[in-house]
Design brief:
It is built from eight helices and 16 strands. It is an alpha+beta fold. The protein has a single domain, classed as ApbE-like domains (T-fold, Roll), CATH 3.10.520. A seven-stranded antiparallel beta sheet has the order 1-2-6-7-10-15-16, with helices on one face. A three-stranded antiparallel beta sheet has the order 3-5-4, with helices on one face. Helix 1 runs antiparallel to helix 6 and helix 6 runs antiparallel to helix 7. The longest helix has 22 residues. Bound molecules: adenosine monophosphate and magnesium ion. The site of magnesium ion has 7 residues, from strand 10 and helix 7.
């Protein structure tokens, strides 16, 4: 059995790693490099931290008027705003003002007061972003509104990369971003599924042709007076999620898994029946 081809790229503040199995290492490597280049391209388009990206420009200029963007940006935003509505705002790419507030709070170690949280919450909601797919423009409803694709960008990028691998006829691959988003094609040689280890139910799952995304509140947390404040925010309260220790979602699209694992962490296990009904082919759990 030939050795697997291993490739990696750093993007979106995480490391993406790709494992490819097959007979023709040279073709696999070419396909893998093209796939990882899509991740870099997606980051350049969608990162809120790159001032020249479409999202960076929308966040800077969008409140003053419509900003011209790539058709792809309109499409991703439409999809994400749809997911925000479908999760009743538990996953919401307009959490930017809350993310900024809590990030600044973390830097000085002081919890924001109720008035500041209420003020930021007024800027959050899917109706704060106006996408015009005919004109290829995006506008923001008012100054201070900010888009943050932190909970879905990785998933979107992984879907793009997996699409490239499939176009190239790759039949056995695993791609993950920062271990929180995984997508596999087929199965590895000598096994009928990819074993994905983690400390969840049964110590992991077995994945075949599909995606897994996990969200944990305390990935990037800070502590004040013994209380830990995580990086996933509940848009309904404006505060970091506390109750669950983690949420995971499996299904065909990494973007949907990524968005819904964040939503599931926010909503908690009582949302699972509605989630399963709304997204056939997907499953999830909390712990
Ligand atoms: P994830 O690890 O996929 O759950 O994404 C968490 C990141 O998404 C955070 O670091 C924030 O940038 C952003 N975020 C936090 N809370 C939410 C939320 N409720 N909906 C959408 N994005 C969020
Ligand atoms: Mg997510």
């Amino acid at each position: 059995m030939p050795a697997p081809v291993l490739l990696a790229v750093h993007a979106m503040a995480t490391r993406f790693e790709l494992v490819l199995h097959g007979d023709d290492a040279m073709r696999l490597r070419a396909a893998g490099e093209e796939a990882l280049a899509e991740i870099t391209r997606a980051e350049q388009l969608l990162s809120a931290y790159a001032p020249a990206s479409d999202i960076g420009r929308i966040n800077r200029d969008g409140a003053a008027g419509p900003v011209r963007v790539m058709a792809e940006t309109c499409r991703v935003l439409r999809q994400c705003l749809g997911l925000a509505r479908a999760t009743h705002g538990a996953f919401d790419v307009t959490v930017g003002p809350l993310v900024r507030l809590w990030r600044a709070a973390g830097e000085v170690g002081v919890v924001p007061d109720a008035a500041a949280i209420a003020e930021a919450r007024l800027l959050v909601g899917a109706d704060q972003v106006i996408v015009d797919e005919d004109a290829l423009t995006v506008a923001l409803a008012r100054p201070g509104v900010a888009i943050d694709l932190g909970a879905a960008g990785k998933g979107y990028a992984i879907d793009l990369a997996i699409g490239v691998l499939r176009e190239h006829g790759v039949t056995s691959a695993l791609l993950h971003g920062g271990t929180s988003s995984v997508h596999v094609i087929g199965h590895p040689p000598g096994d009928d599924a990819w074993p994905i280890g983690w400390d969840g139910p049964n110590g992991g799952i077995r994945l075949r042709d599909g995606a897994l995304a996990v969200s944990a509140p305390h990935g990037r947390a800070f502590e004040v007076d013994g209380v830990s404040y995580g990086h996933v925010l509940d848009p309904a309260t404006g505060e970091p999620v506390q109750q669950a220790r983690g949420a995971g979602v499996t299904g065909p699209s990494s973007l949907v898994c990524d968005a819904c694992s964040t939503a599931l962490l926010v909503r908690g296990p009582s949302w699972l029946p509605e989630f399963r009904q709304r997204w056939p082919g997907y499953d999830g759990w909390t712990r």
